[in-house]
Amino acid sequence: MKAKVHVTLKQGVLDPQGKAVQHALAALGFTGVGDVRQGKFIELDIAEADPAKAKAQVEEMCRKLLANTVIENYAIDLEG
Amino acid sequence: MPAITPEIVAEHGLSPAEYERVLAIMGREPNITELGIFSVMWSEHCSYKSSKKWLKTLPTTAPWVICGPGENAGVVDIGDGQAAIFKMESHNHPSFIEPYQGAATGVGGILRDVFTMGARPVANLNALRFGAPEHAKTRHLVAGVVAGIGGYGNCVGVPTVGGEVEFHPSYNGNILVNAMTIGIADTDNIFYSEASGVGNPVVYVGSKTGRDGIHGATMASAEFSEDSEEKRPTVQVGDPFTEKLLIEACLELMATDAIVAIQDMGAAGLTSSSFEMASKGGLGVEIDLDAVPVRETGMTPYEIMLSESQERMLMVLEPGKEHIAKAVFDKWELDFSIIGRLTDTGRMVLTMGGATVADLPIDPLAQAAPEYDRPWTPGEKLPEVAAADVPERPWGEALLTLIGGPQGSSRRWVWEQYDHMVMGDTVGRPGGDAALVRIHGTKKGLAATSDVTPRYVAADAHQGGRQAVAEAWRNLTAVGATPLAITDNMNFGNPERPAIMGQFVEAIKGMGEACIALDFPVVSGNVSLYNETNGEAILPTPTIGAIGLMPDVEQSVGIGFAAPDQALVLIGAEGSWLGQSWYLAQVAGRAEGAPPPVDLAAERRNGDFVRGLIRAGQVSACHDVSDGGLLVAVAEMAMASGIGADVSVAGPHLHAALFGEDQARYVVATADAEAVLAAAAKAGVAARRLGATGGDALAVNGADEISVAALKKAHESWFPAYMA
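^ Those are the sequences you sent over. The predicted structure of the assembly is below.
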């Protein structure tokens, strides 16, 4: 089973990297771009076949390593 | 708008009595924004309500002090029309919650305190204290804090040149992150925070305001309970690249005459900066919150006023100079907004959407800030530990235990993550007694150190307070510098407990005595109280950050032996005191007893003598004797150079002579021991020939040698192995 994890900064947490991207886009002439927020996308191959168990496993991974839950949210999609 | 209930008042950290005072000042019930402002202005962090009575007793003046406590940072004259501006500040609670960002924003905040006064930051130091190494959270916290300090300091381009790292179980739930910045300014271009000029524009510059760290200032003054990890407020995130732009923009504008007053937005953000500026000037201020640059929609007045978004400054400009300032901040791509003006009403009036959202009197609020004379009890005197009652272990085994354990091992793993060379003026690098940074374009240097021995303070706060100041003075002296002044970062537990308040009071008394005896005034500082979890307080930790002046950096010496076949001379008394020593705790397993007493006259006499030797070129290496005693000091000198030594000690108790932590002592290496001993005799300073450098091993009384390579291996292994 494949797990796709999106890790994003929580609402309201400053995103210096997003700010830099926004700035760079403006400098390159892309007008009309408002706020930019960036995050990371992680794909995992999971041996567990049971979706509920797989989801629980990945959630544990998110809490312990993949996301800094003090400032980040995560969302998990399971495929296959 | 929410109604003000007793619960909301309590959540804002105000006692019922304090809230009564709020009602009296307002003449009506405050709204939530006003309550928030009272709450932060009367928090311990901003008002020093528990500590002020005692802080006022510290000596703060000297002929070279330009500005003492009360401003963003302390200012001392370093000659040639230049001043050093410096301060240390804690970021303890945020660093426990989110170690990377907490430590990073701690560095950012203390940098702003320094450049807001017109100084270019030239060096950072950090005093870090973590829980027991085996505690479940410690490794994660060490990794995050060190990375955060490096991440911010390295990106902003200011070298991190020194500091401390210590472990103790009392910090398990309350780590300490004390960050210090030193900057250099011209004495005729120093900026203060006192607002003046009715009608003058109040200007906001830097980054936009978000919902970061709302109520950080009140959080920093509240005791932790187990569930505070769940109630995490929005963490402040630092952006060092914006800070770098802010430094350059501020310094560029400061070269013009556009600025009347300036203050950084630190804890309690826009509230404390605007309030303090107006309060110091005896004026009022009107702020249009619609003009405040925000990065989120729907922010309430409460959120805008209490946000702790980073990289922001507030300034009062000369009328008609707004365009000059705007051009500078536009150039550096920073926000610039005129958000209000000074008034003669003595009131802070905030408007939003055309309506008044807060209106409170400034002076009464500042004047009526609570000030407590909290009850305190003196600490119990602990018995002295007799050396005869402490078992002797072979010195080699004991030495390896001390220099290879969590307390005594090399901190290379930490400081290697910090850029300590950027700006190109670092002369004395991490690992010595004090860091030394050349004053750019001159041959002069600033020496800097941070010191405190919390276990001594816990055992005897009075002697421990003296010792913290004396050790800082000694470390500056040991590189050859003239100590100038200190900044104190007072980290303690809950002051409402008389025993904790007693630690605070007695430590201050001891510090004050040492400051007077050593001509070493306090010019800035910070207080962090309520460092407790479930009623367990940290060891009392009055961290002393200190700077000294070196007239010629070429004259400075390091701790490493410069050459073989040099004589070693011990300046000061023989070792005798094992109470509270590393040896007693780590080798004999007994963390107990009275700490070594501090004889301030001997400190002064011995230190002045050693500094004279260094300046006269009579010594080639120098190290003060502190944690671990004489043999640890000599081992550190050997490891720093790769050159061995043989030292001779006598006396009834070899372990006390080698590992006693008696104060006011130094080890120096010299090519001419006779001259040093003769000078010492003349100056009335205790000194004796200790041994000689040479070979590649350390020996005591010519026997049982350990190779320097083996010492180094033990010394360098612990930290990387722990973090791996």
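Chain A has a mean pLDDT of 93. The CA atoms of residues 14 and 37 of chain A lie 9 Å apart.

Shout if you want it in another format.
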